[in-house]
Design goal:
Blueprint lengths: L6 H14 L14 H14 L3 H25 L11 H26 L2 H23 L2 H6 L5 H11 L6 H11 L4 H8 L6 H8 L3 H8 L21 H6 L4 H5 L15 H7 L10 H4 L6 H15 L23 H21 L4 H4 L13
Helix pairs in contact: 3-4, 3-17, 4-5, 5-10, 5-16, 8-9, 14-17
Length: 374
């Protein structure tokens, strides 16, 4: 068996080619910057940058990702000694959850390394996976079609049939309509929560002046004289917007004094939402100055139907659709995390949106022309 072409052999090959081109390089010499050294230096620099607001919102983000990890663990682990053939519904749900968790961890890495534009781009596709999962939980037959999307042709066919041109939106509204027991205004309100910000995230992902500037000049509490370009990776307050995109759309499209009337709903999380005037869920005006408040809000808004509106999944009546049912056990920590976590995370979102808390959780963001402090 021939030896593999290693990185060391690659460098030797390139030195030979550079020599043929008239550039003689020593054994450890190279042309151009060493990308590995650049990325290592960038990561070390990001780790040194400390901001309590950034750390707070990463901790908020981590709570939602942790809940997802518990959910996928219980959904995937069947507690059965004998193997069995999982249903298409089960395959679809578990695969989607694994993709969502994988992307969520990648988003976290990007934010911590200072590549928030990349994080926002990934958030957009991650929320689509969340919406498809919510739709399959509501309509298990969609899981059968999902499992047929095994190559580029069938994958595009599935996308055109269920996702293109906002086709999934009525399904999400129907999920919230069931949750709010027929309250159409409330269902429409939450179904559009976050989705109206997709064009903003798409504008960052697509080639545009706005998207490029976002990658080069991230939002800061203050700008220093350090000679460092955002394209190398610059941990910044822009990632607060990436974590909290769940909150802003609630407010921007709500009437100032409107209340959600859902007194017929028994779910305590829904009652907590109903009891909170939407004017008290207003987004911080300081944060609006960043111009990029969308991504984490969108992330949580995509996740919110799975937290509140889907009920007891993976327990309850939907567990019958698994090849082997998952039965809730109060003694199981992961089970408790999933079941009770729905109320805890719902309350967390409301607490973060209480106007009285805004001065404690939202930073002042510097204007681009602002001089650094002396």
């Amino acid at each position: 068996m021939a030896d593999i072409f290693t990185a060391q052999r690659l460098q030797k090959f390139l030195r030979k080619k550079w020599k043929e081109a008239g550039c003689t390089l020593e054994r450890r010499q190279r042309m151009g910057i060493c990308t590995a050294q650049l990325t290592n230096h960038s990561a070390k620099r990001s780790r040194r940058l400390q901001d309590p607001h950034f750390d707070l919102w990463i901790a908020v983000y981590d709570e939602f990702v942790s809940w997802l990890v518990s959910l996928v663990t219980v959904a995937h682990w069947n507690n059965c000694k004998e193997p069995y053939e999982p249903t298409d519904y089960e395959k679809a749900i578990v695969l989607l959850l694994m993709r969502i968790v994988s992307d969520s961890l990648a988003i976290r890495h990007l934010m911590l390394l200072g590549f928030d534009a990349g994080a926002k781009t990934l958030v957009r596709s991650t929320t689509e996976h969340m919406e498809v999962m919510a739709a399959i939980l509501d309509d298990p037959t969609m899981g059968i079609e999902f499992c047929k999307s095994r190559d580029e042709i069938t994958a595009n066919k599935f996308w055109k049939a269920y996702l293109s041109k906002h086709k999934v939106r009525p399904r999400i509204k129907n999920i919230w309509l069931k949750f709010f027991r027929g309250e159409h205004d409330a269902a429409k309100f939450f179904a559009n929560w976050g989705s109206n910000d997709y064009p903003q995230l798409s504008a960052i992902a697509h080639p545009s002046f706005m998207g490029c500037v976002h990658a080069v000049i991230p939002a800061k509490a203050s700008y220093s004289d350090e000679k460092w370009l955002g394209m190398w990776g610059d941990k910044s307050l822009a990632s607060i917007g990436t974590v909290q995109t769940c909150l802003s759309p609630l407010i921007r499209r709500a009437k100032e004094n409107r209340m959600l009337s859902i007194s017929c709903v028994a779910d305590p999380s829904a009652q907590a939402i109903a009891a909170t005037p939407l004017k008290e869920l207003r987004f911080s005006s300081d944060l609006r100055r960043q111009g990029d408040r969308y991504a984490v809000q969108t992330y949580i808004s995509g996740l919110f139907p799975l937290i509140l509106a889907i009920g007891d999944f993976p327990f309850g009546k939907r567990t019958k659709l698994f090849g082997r049912p998952r039965r809730y056990s109060p003694a199981n920590e992961l089970h408790k995390h999933i079941k009770q976590g729905r109320t805890v995370l719902g309350s967390l979102v409301l607490s973060l949106n209480a106007e009285s808390n805004h001065p404690l959780i939202y930073p002042e963001v510097a204007s681009l022309g602002e001089k650094p402090p002396r």
